[in-house]
Amino acid sequence: MGVDGETGAEFAVDLEANLRGLRDRALSGRYRAPPVRRVLIPKGDGKKTRPIGITTFEDKVLQRAVVMALEPVYEEEFTDFSYGFRRGRSAHDALRDLQHQLWKMGGGVVLELDIQSFFDQIDRGLLQQILRQRVTDGVLLRLIGKWLHAGVMEDGRLSQPESGTPQGGVISPLLANIYLHEVFDGWWIREVLPRLGGEAHAFRYADDIVIVFANERDARRVMEVLPKRFGRFGLTLHPEKTRLVPFQRPRTPLGAKMEAKPGSFDFLGFTQYWTRSRKGHEAEDGTKPSGQGVVDRPCAARHTHRPVVEQAKTLGKKAARALRLLRGHGELPCLGAVLPRGEAHLARAVCRRSQRGRSVGRDFGLLEAESAPRPLWFTRSASVSESPDAEEPDAGI
Fold first, then answer.
1. Distance of alpha carbon 176 from its chain centroid, rounded?
2. pLDDT digits (tens, 9 = 90+) for 187-241
3. How many angstroms separate the CA atoms of 17 and 25, rounded?
4. pTM
5. Which residues of the chain have pLDDT under 50?
6. How far apart are CA 309 and CA 90, in angstroms?
7. I need a surface site. Which of 82, 205, 221, 251 has the fewest CB within 10 A?
8. Of 64, 73, 72, 54, nearest to 23 (Cα)?
9. Do the domain assignments include residue 56?
10. CATH number, domain at 39?
11. Any domain includes 255
């Protein structure tokens, strides 16, 4: 809940009157955006944290109404390679289309972009200028301005950041897409693509961006101008994590050893790489989960004190999120890396709390019963030798 402590159930007690009062305050300009309550949640590696802004329930309702008004306007502009937080599009679609294009092009040179603290760096003044190019309703613009300058409440202290928009608000994903459409998407289509000498395709999910180039010269030219382009909008690219990755598909005769392996890169939590087909012949595109899997050692250690069933359910929730991305992408190889590794960390953590150095069979039975959702179906990976004429092989993901 937000800084006012009001829940959805409390707001619904007198729903019609509350909605009517909220609408009247918004239209008349009397609405005041309360500060956002900031909480820190651990990132996937368990070592760093990500700030999330929790708005009041009234803010959630009003922001949802504004999103419903603005989405149809901007959906006409948004590009096909933008996948994040859009109706009918998902991370699943982004991964599928990326791998299809890699297969179709035979790889290439991949430019992996990393924007430092994107949500904290957004220039509010520029964002409001961008909004005014398409939005003429003064009420909507005024409300968004109030949310951008509402302030942040953390541990009882109110602060007023000079830039950024809180990550976690209902309207934040749409504002992020609008901003990055101006920073990157539109610029890529208008200014960059016509000047390239070869084929190139961009894929963006929120602030995660990768670009696949057919030739290295184009990739290096674009990489040189990207920092200046993003800098014009107050954004900074990480100098080490923004990198070029050689990703050409290895060409080796049947039966021969694979030549020096090409690089790999991460996108939406999954590592893209080239690997052998199932019969050990030519290379095919593959994917595996990035990092240590569903549950890493630090995560397992943090939950050791909890009952076994609760620990297992934590693993189950994390595995379910992974499964949503894996379904439809040949999930069997990925699950072979994800689920056993997470269960092994969890089982070792349970054993360590036993004075005998091992856990009783009942506990492991609970782990097996509660820990991970088991896939109901698998899509068989296609290899070059098995389906040479396939238009869209489902290989490796």
1. 13
2. 999 999 999 999 999 999 999 999 999 999 999 999 999 999 999 999 999 999 9
3. 12
4. 0.75
5. 254, 292-295, 297, 330-332, 357-361, 371-372, 374-397
6. 31
7. 251
8. 64
9. yes
10. 3.90.1850.10
11. no
